[in-house]
Structure formats: structure tokens, C-alpha cells
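Lab notebook, bench 4. The sequencing result for the construct came back, and we need a structural model before the next group meeting so we can plan mutations. Quick request posted to the team channel:

Model the 3D structure of this chain.
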Amino acid sequence: ETIVNLIEEKPKLITKDKENFRVLLEKIYQYGLEFDKEEDNSWCNPSGTNYEEIDCMEEDSISFAQQMIDRLVECTGTGKITPYLYDIINKLVSQNDWSYKYIGLFSISSLAQYEDDMSSLEMTFKLIFSLTKFEHCKVRFAAINCINKFLIITFLLSSVLLKVESDLSTLFEEFSLSF
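Done. Here's the predicted structure in C-alpha cell form:
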């Protein structure tokens, strides 16, 4: 956390040194992978009826790692960090171990909020859809979570665009009537 705090204050400390930037990101993911991998599927059968309260990502190390990544994205800018992140995430989801796929998918769903152009993620969509049939339930859940995030973001972007387009049309009509 101290390193991320320092980078938030002076982002150029890390963005100028690409190799150390990559190493830092890899170490954050390495920390995220240090969670208990014992089978605990209690979250699959929630006691209540509100499925929104279910937290599949209960592992503190994954949650902390994702918070650090999000903070780095926000302070360094998406253009500088996402190429490294997608490279690391692709390596994670290509591993055979379910825990690597799990943290990789949660990273994808978190990074979706920073994507302006969803069409650039076409190959990622194919991978995510294929992982909805993966043998481990947490990987399937994480894949479905990704799809859900993409749908929400796509809906929000299209709603905003429709609103802006409508506002612009009204503005142009008013402008043309004034002449």
C-alpha cells in the first residue's frame, strides 16, 4: 500500500520505468493469488433471498490486489497501464489452475469500467463466454460476473450517448431557429 500511495503522489516515478511498472503489477497479482484455495462453496447456496449481497470475491488478498490495481489505473491513466494489465491477465486466464483464471476474470470485470470501446475486447468476450462452462464454479461465477459488468457498462454508455444525442439535436434545432 505504501508503494501505491507514493505512486499516487508521483505517478511519473513508475510510468517512466516500464520494467519496474510491470514487476510491481506482477507482484500485486502474485499477492492476490495468495488466498485459501480450499473448496468452500457455501456462497453457492445463500441463506437469504437477496443475491446482490453475495460476495464471491471474499478473499481479502484478491480484493486488496484489485483495489491497488484500480488505484494505479486511476493515477497513471489507462493508456499507460492497460497494456501491461492485459498482458498479465492473458497469462493468468491461460493457466490451467482455476485460481489464476478466477483472479484474471475479476480483473477483466474491474477494468471494464475504464474501457471506452468495447469492440476492442472481442477476443476477450470469446474467452469469457468459454469460461462460463469451466469445471470450477468460482471461475464460472467470475465469467458471468464479467458478462454482467460488460452489459451494465454497455447499457450505461448507450444510455448516455442517446441522452447526449437527444440534447445535441435539441440544441441544434434551437440554434437553427435563432437564425
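The mean pLDDT is 77.
Will bring this to the meeting.
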